[in-house]
Write a structure and sequence with these properties.
By secondary structure, the chain is of the alpha+beta class. It has nine helices and 19 strands. It has a five-stranded mixed sheet. About 40% of the residues are buried.
Length: about 425
Amino acid sequence: MRSDRGRNGLCASRRPGVRPPALDAHAEQARVDAGALAAQRVASHFPQIATPGVRALAWLDRAAAKAESHSASDLARRRCAPPGKFWLPSRNVRIGRREVKLTNLDKVFFPALGLTKGDLIRYYLDLAPCLLHHVKRRPMQMLRYPDGVDGFRFYQKRVPEPHPDWLETVHIQFPSGRTADFPVCNDAASLAWIINLGCIDLHTWRSRVEDVERPDELLIDLDPSEGNPWAAVREIALVVKEVLDELGLASYPKTSGATGLHILAPIKPELAFPEVRRFAKALAQEVERRIGDQELATTTWRVADRSGVFVDFGQNTRDRTIACAYSIRPTPDARASAPLRWEEVPRCNPSRFTLRTMPKRVAKVGDLTAGMWRRKASLLPRFERLGLPPGDPSIVEIRRSRGVRRWESDQSRRTQRNY
């Protein structure tokens, strides 16, 4: 079998020299009916963004009418579509003050649940008021799944060309000398544009574009190894909270959306990544000391040498990314990275937080991370409390490459903003 990619980027698998069979009248009518049904389904995705001048529902009505006019040959060329599915045409849809081109809204992204790209975009637009303050003004590294969770994936740092002229980007130089223009998601339109590229979850830096060298949040990632129960993760999380409370740092737990738990602490962007990582490492080692059992909690770096839940401090490194709060993860059940109350942690079950359940949860409990950026604290007076030498604001980057070298940057002056 070989895969051919047509003008529209659609893949059709066929044997060499074998023409796809023509569709009979019944098959053609079934495809037409599926196209009309698909258009009606997606009509429910975007009622909140239909505005005078660009009416999403009117567009979907026209899509249904257009589906009825496709000939058998047109349908045969779309044989890559799963049975009963008909990819809707693209259209510019107004979201806020922007027009965004959305494509293939009925393309299945989560086959086990029958959830589509349209379902995914609708989720992110519905939760945009809660999510945007986590990604706004941060460089974003895109992880794209063009064919959904069961298809191939690839990372993309550089913003694709062409892209909307209103999309903000930030120009970043790396110690290697290479550069990249990262997308920055500041509004719902940018969010929809990025998800339309096939991004299921949103991966952002720990820093903002005003100074990408200095993060404004500290992260402890509790990453269980195989065989470690979720109960152990929850127990260790409470010890992390205990240490952060003693240090006077606000803390916000969330499920990773996979197997772990993230604890975020908002901090003032005074120190660069190497110093924040040094602080986070000492914090993680204090958690390990209080647990007192490396079979339960460990900071051992090499995977082969550890068996407990990894208290991961390494995510506080420059250009490391995690899925932000409210992100949907590329799992068969479309699991979400869900913010939690601390009192929920001892009994929470990550499988309860999904694309289908999160909107109802947010409607009930609200945004549990609201106001967190007003609680930023300085790490500078807290190093000594962990037995560390004082933090050094002059250190910008330490990179290991056949040894250790320091890299001083005027990165904040290289920020580029496009409106």
